[in-house]
Design brief:
The protein is of the alpha+beta class. The chain has a single domain, classed as Thiol Ester Dehydrase, Chain A. About 25% of the residues lie in helices and about 35% in strands. A six-stranded antiparallel β-sheet has the order 1-2-4-5-6-3. A hairpin with a 5-residue loop joins β1 and β2. The longest helix has 11 residues. This is DUF4442 domain-containing protein.
Length: about 150
């Protein structure tokens, strides 16, 4: 993923992903291509460094028969980012169990996950929230290619 153009161009680097995809650490170094008008980290890069991970982590861990999509995202800028910024993601079994249980009857489940982007000194630069959509798929459906299978029209 470090070679993925949106990450590479923005100076985003994945530093660690555990084999089970329950933990991810990502860094954003300040450079010429990710500074804003006043010389601090560009907000779009701060959001991009956190964008895909909750969805991917849940997809890789929730088990077959579920579809997972990003539904919404929001970012709160707390302080200017002037140094390398890092974000960590930890997916717990409790969160996965809650999602599985809530989706067991075929209901659409919306859940927020939160991450803080931290400066080198540990201070908060930004708080990012991502809302995921989780739902059981109909038997035999391809969760990536069949929208009707996961969210049929009324």
């Amino acid at each position: 993923m470090n070679l993925w153009p949106p990450f590479a161009a923005a100076g985003i680097r994945i530093e660690e992903i555990t084999p089970d995809w329950r933990y991810v650490r990502v860094a954003l170094r300040k450079g010429v291509f990710n500074r804003n008008y006043v010389g601090t980290h560009f907000g779009g890069s701060l959001f991009a460094m956190t964008d895909p991970f909750w969805m991917i982590m849940v997809m890789r861990n929730i088990g077959g028969g579920h579809v997972v999509w990003d539904k919404a995202g929001e970012i709160e800028f707390v302080a200017p980012g002037r140094t390398t910024v890092r974000a960590e993601f930890r997916l717990t079994e409790e969160a996965l169990d809650e999602l599985r249980e809530a989706a067991a009857d075929g209901s659409k489940v919306l859940r927020w996950f939160e991450t803080e982007a931290l400066a080198a000194d540990g201070s908060v630069v930004a708080r990012v929230r991502k809302q995921l959509y989780v739902r059981r798929t109909r038997e035999g459906a391809d969760p990536l290619g069949d929208r009707e299978a996961v969210d049929p029209a009324p």
